[in-house]
TrEMBL record:
Gene Ontology BP, a term: mitochondrial respiratory chain complex IV assembly
InterPro entries: Cox20
Record field: transmembrane: none
Protein name: Cytochrome c oxidase assembly protein COX20, mitochondrial
Positions of the UniProt region annotated as Disordered: 1-56, 149-170
Protein's UniProt keywords contain Translocase: no
Pfam families: Cox20 (PF12597)
GO CC terms, sorted: mitochondrial inner membrane
Principal location: mitochondrion
Length: 178
């Protein structure tokens, strides 16, 4: 598919990239815009992401895709920052409350770690869900705009043909020399 990159203004917390050059600044984010509608195989993959053409995904296959560099670039990954901050806040809150209520440091730490993992995963997945929904909505919008452009071009062509016919009729003489 051909892609066009479009920059839109947004709040600084929506930004997922940094500094200068061709990358978005602190108040911009980059959206990928597809100029073609979804192909049927892409649509099926979006509807059922748990399987790939080669079969179901296993945990070992998923773990094998993780690289050491991924941990260094975690701040640039979409939704990772928000997910981690939500996890930290939920873990600290639940762990602190558990410590104050029960007074057992070990159990409070276990609850804090558990809610950190739960809060991080839930926030990350919700953010990814919103991104997928936004991408699908953008694709629908592009399809609607493309359809409207086709309709306008068709109407303009019909109007042009009608004007040409009227011009020919106006030039046609009602009398005839022999």
């Amino acid at each position: 598919m051909s892609r066009e990159t479009e920059k839109m203004s947004s709040s600084p917390q929506d930004s997922n990239a940094g500094a200068a050059g061709g990358t978005p600044g602190s108040n911009q984010k980059t959206l990928q815009v597809w100029s073609e509608p979804l192909k049927p195989e892409d649509q099926k993959r979006l509807e059922n992401p748990s399987t790939t053409p080669s079969g179901p995904v296993t945990i070992s296959a998923a773990v094998s895709t993780i690289k050491k560099e991924d941990f260094g670039n975690i701040a640039q990954m979409p939704c990772a920052r928000g997910g981690l901050l939500t996890g930290i806040a939920s873990g600290a809150t639940v762990g602190g409350l558990r410590f104050v209520m029960r007074g057992n440091v070990g159990k409070a730490a276990n609850w804090a770690v558990g809610f950190f993992l739960l809060g991080s995963a839930a926030s990350y997945e919700y953010c990814q869900y919103k991104r997928r929904a936004e991408r699908i909505q953008m694709q629908r919008t592009i399809e609607v705009v493309a359809e409207k452009k086709r309709e306008q071009a068709k109407k303009a062509e019909e109007a042009k043909q009608k004007r040409e016919e009227e011009r020919k009729k106006a030039e046609h003489r009602w009398y005839k020399f022999w």
